[in-house]
Amino acid sequence: MLTQRALKEFARSATRSLSSSLPRPSPANSHTAVALPPTVANSGLLRTARDEALWTPGLRWRDEDRVGVGFAAPQAAAELQESDLRAEDEGGRPTEKMNMYQAIRSALHTVLEKDESAMVFGEDVSFGGVFRCTMGLADSFGEERVFNTPLTEQGIAGFGIGLATMGHTAVAEMQFADYIFPAFDQIVNEAAKYRFRSGGMFNCGSLTFRSPCSAVGHGGLYHSQSPEAYFLQASGVKVVVPRSPIQAKGLLLSAIRDPNPVLFLEPKILYRSAVEQVPTGDYELPLSSAEVLREGADLTIVSYGPPLYTIETALHHLKHPSEELAALIPESLRNLSVELIDLRTIVPYDIETVVKSVNKTGRCIVVHEAPQSGSVANELSAEIQQRCFLRLEAPVKRLTGWDTPFGLAYEKFYLPDHIRILDGIIETMRY
């Protein structure tokens, strides 16, 4: 068995190697050596090797035959062992190349296999769903456990609440997060408050709502929204947004097994674009725990979901500006040390990790796709100002979507792109 100190040191070194933004070679037909900006396809934030996947921070194995909400108290989830790192043919933990929708399907398969009370339902889920996340599950587990519902979001939510109240593990899919609003009353006034208003006698904690969210490039005002901020005041419901396949599987398994209702929002643009080596076994990642993706000393940037990759692109251009940008980026900022944090859980979020980072760097930027008014960025900014006021060297910068309906033709201009992020970095550092 590896010592805990050796494990932690290896994990730190692996994280540093993952987060380093190295210049990428130019195309074969290019005569000029240029550093190409990273994309989701070749992001340094993704774990594309087996060893990197197994060293995912916070990963805990669940090797019991039966796992679920309300089951007999299991043994503590297992940490990584030396034997896990052996080659697969020698008994090591296996991984498989997956995109995000495949990782979500793997998580749902694991839940249905280990929890006989689990049911997966929603519009078109028995056919595989719009994004294929439930493909083949009805064939494997039967249409009594994986089934379609009528097109009624409030009905899906109400049915899920009743099912969870009766002791089942309910996994409900809202086909698009944009259409979750008819179910808002059920989620906020029933699911969130059920335990509280019954004095702890009843609850629907074994209920999870999955829903595709965020921009996809052409979704417009009814298929590209990020509604997570609407649930900031829904005390009793947790809200989670994953950034990658490994994160999606581990966080979804934790969400389904958490004894509280959880809204699990899946950025649809990442379903096929983000690819990692994902452990095929049963594992969980902690809720309400932010992850420091790269360490820094000069500036903290906090985000979640797809904007993390846009931030990575912006940081690349900061260090390796193109000819068009070179005159606009001060030389003194080219080697800026930036700490990048993935919030992961939006409600309740991990303020301690954020505060620790901002107290170190003295500056902070919050980035997300949702509009600014009443947003996660506003909430975080207020908390940071209250807790870090004497350490701040500049106001907290918020880079978000605009306070308008999500435009179809202007979707590219709605999102905080790498130019807006670069501009925010320069403004914050010059304050």
Automatic annotation (TrEMBL):
Residues 13-30 have a biased composition (Low complexity). SUPFAM superfamilies: Thiamin diphosphate-binding fold (THDP-binding) (SSF52518), TK C-terminal domain-like (SSF52922). It catalyses: N(6)-[(R)-lipoyl]-L-lysyl-[protein] + 3-methyl-2-oxobutanoate + H(+) = N(6)-[(R)-S(8)-2-methylpropanoyldihydrolipoyl]-L-lysyl-[protein] + CO2. SMART domains: Transket_pyr (SM00861). It comes from the Eukaryota. Its EC number is 1.2.4.4. It is an enzyme of class 1 (oxidoreductase). One of its GO terms (biological process) is response to nutrient. Transmembrane segments: none annotated. Residues 13-34 are annotated as: Disordered. Residues 98-273 form the Transketolase-like pyrimidine-binding domain. Its cofactor is thiamine diphosphate. Keywords: Oxidoreductase. GO terms for molecular function: branched-chain 2-oxo acid dehydrogenase activity. This is 3-methyl-2-oxobutanoate dehydrogenase (2-methylpropanoyl-transferring).
